[in-house]
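One-letter codes give the sequence; the fold follows as tokens. Both lines appear below.
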Amino acid sequence: MTTERQEAWMRIIVFIVTGIILGLWKGLIQIIVIVHWFYVLFTDERNKDLSDFCQIWNLQMIDFLRYMTFVQNERPFPFGNLAKK
């Protein structure tokens, strides 16, 4: 069992590692948004797999922000589970 002080120090490591991962993932999401936009224009339908991938990133960002603002103590990915829907 970790103390609040230990958990606060751990947040620095989580911030660096998860921040880098989510930042790189964000770049990929930005490309997917453009691709998906053209996909919808030409096919008149959404691609569920692309939407689901973006939704996982959204959930990870929420978990990351909740952890970093001390709303929750459950660590975000890659230190915890990958949130899916």
